[in-house]
Design a protein that fits this description.
Dihydrodipicolinate Reductase, domain 2; binds nicotinamide-adenine-dinucleotide; 15 strands; nine-stranded mixed sheet; alpha/beta; globular; 23% strand; Rossmann fold
């Protein structure tokens, strides 16, 4: 039985991570750490009154000697906690984004390589049934050559924890580009066959720092809002990524925008088919009048696809199960730490381009 220790027991830990660990047969949560004692009470009632409870992650790792450390803290802590856990001999699963700077991401990669342990960052959107269906359409050749894409996650009103860590650049690394972009840019690149990004351009805007309108998106309940807190990140980012194989990706991410409604999407242009995954619905276009539409949960049984990882419909559970299978069964990881470093290079490059007004070569 693998011993699991969770660091950070906030929104994402008590939801998807807790339900995943409870279902995974060969792993058991033995300890949790949070700097807020009331969060530890939640962990105790979610798992068992016998689990170890800590306010200091180093003490937890030293005493419990877990096989796995699951990192669910604010972004700036991902890298230092991952490095510490790897150095102490634990495998690490870490929430997205990988890190808040390229330097921090490289430290994680170096610690992983020195330790020989498994380090994966959550990419739950890759593992959903819909994504696996799209991956199957691409890898089976049905869409032809994928030569360009567009992706985005545009919220109308959905700033997470305004004034708290999410909107404080030193703790989050940025706004919707790093928070939401990591999900959809990763999904687009994964579906495109992981081409290597070679250059980026982008613009960012911060127009809602002083807007006191009540957020109307359920996502705005993430994190902890703080009146008179810091808001020094963007609320809209637009950009363009070029890849080594000649393909490109147009991107758009917002926490707050004056648009019709919130939407998230990946659109791929292939020589045989165009694919669009928008708000849980897949459309397949062939240039004619017909559109093949698949409502994933009802029409597509991803468990029958040949992509090798979709065993369940929930992205987080499938992601964490895959991580455990990499450790225990030696299965080929679908996410590599190099892809994580490349992702942070793309995001940091877009922030740099927004500041300098120039294209950034990666
Ligand atoms: N994959 C997804 O879909 C998804 C969704 C939401 C959040 N996330 C990611 O999960 C992470 C946490 O986000 P959240 O929404 O749960 O935030 P949150 O603020 O609700 O939870 C973070 C928790 O970490 C604790 N914490 C802070 N510093 C700590 C420390 N030094 N040691 C131990 N605990 C500490 C906080 O007290 C809090 O309980 C972020 O990296 C975020 O990007 C991912």
């Amino acid at each position: 039985m693998l011993k699991v220790a969770i660091v950070g027991y906030g929104g994402i830990a008590k939801g998807p991570h807790t339900s995943a660990w409870k279902k995974i047969e060969n792993a058991k949560v033995v300890a949790a750490c949070d700097i807020r004692p009331e969060r530890l009470d939640l962990a105790k009632s979610a798992f068992s009154s016998n689990i170890g409870l800590y306010e200091d992650y180093k003490e937890m790792i030293d005493k419990e000697k877990p096989d796995i450390v699951d990192i669910c803290t604010p972004n700036y802590l991902h890298s230092p906690i991952a490095v510490y856990a790897l150095e102490k001999g634990a495998h690490v699963i870490c929430e997205k984004p990988d890190a808040i700077s390229v330097e921090d991401a490289l430290k994680m990669q170096a610690a992983k390589e020195a330790s020989g342990k498994v380090l994966m960052t959550i990419r739950n959107n890759r593992y959903s049934a819909g994504s696996q269906y799209l991956k199957h359409l691409v890898t089976s050749g049905q869409a032809g050559e994928i030569y360009s894409g567009r992706c985005g996650w545009i919220r109308k009103r959905g700033i997470p924890g305004k004034g708290g860590w999410f909107t404080t650049k030193a703790q989050s690394g940025g706004g919707p580009l790093i928070d939401l972009g990591v999900h959809m840019i990763d999904l687009a690149i994964y579906l495109m066959g992981n081409p290597k990004a070679v250059s980026v351009t982008g613009n960012t805007y911060s127009k809602f720092a002083d807007n006191t309108e009540k957020a109307d998106s359920s996502h705005a309940t993430f994190g902890q809002a703080k009146e008179d807190g810091i808001y020094d990140v963007e609320d809209l980012a637009m950009g363009f990524v070029k890849f080594d194989n000649g393909s490109c990706l147009q991107i758009e991410f917002s926490w707050a925008s004056n648009i019709k409604r919130e939407t998230r999407f990946v659109q791929l242009r292939g020589t045989k088919k165009g694919l669009e995954f928008r708000d849980g619905i897949i459309d397949v276009f062939d240039g004619g009048r017909n559109t093949k539409r698949a409502r994933i949960k009802h029409n597509v049984d991803a468990r029958k696809l040949d992509t090798g990882i979709a065993k369940v419909l929930n992205g987080h559970e499938a992601n964490i199960r895959h991580f455990v299978d990499v450790i225990t069964k030696g299965v080929e990881p679908v996410f590599t730490i190099e892809q994580g470093v490349d992702m942070i290079k793309i995001l940091s490059g877009i922030y740099e381009s927004a500041q300098t007004g120039k294209e950034v070569l990666l």
